[in-house]
Input
Amino acid sequence: MKEKLRAFFTRNSQPSEASIFFIAAPPELPDFGGLTILMAEDNAPLWPVIAVMLEKTGASCCYVENGAKCLEAFSAEPLRFDLILMDFEMPVMGGVESARLIRESGLPRCKDIPIIAMSGGFSAALKIQGLFSGVLPKPFDKESLLRAIASALSDRCAACCPL
Output
C-alpha cells in the first residue's frame, strides 16, 4: 500500500520547522472498455508506452508504422476501429494523405470515425481541413492523450469519462 501511495504523498520539511504534508488521490481513468484504437506511428518505441496508457482504460490497440498501412488496415475492417490516432509525419504515406484517403474512401464509418492527429510541429489549420477530429501535440502525457480521445468520442463517452 505504501508503494502505491508514494507518488501521491509528499512532504516538505526542514529541521526545527513544521512539516507540510501533501496528499492527492490518484486520478480516475476514463472507461474506454470495448474501444479498438488504430494507431499509425512510425516511432515503434512509442507503441508500448501508449499501449500501457490505453490498456488501463480498457481500450485495445492495433499499431501500424505508416499512413499507407493505416489506410490498408482501415479499408480491410472499417467497422473494427472506433478511433484512429494518426502521426502527422511518417514515411511512405503521411497522416494528412492517409486521413484524406480514409475520408474519401466511401467505406462504412469513413466520414465519422474520429481521427486524432499527433505531431511535434502540428498546425491547428489541419483540424479545420475537416480531416481530423482533434489534435495532440507531441510530446504528450497520459492525461492529454485520454482527454483528446474523450473529446473526440464525446457523444459516446459523455457519461463514462471523468476527465
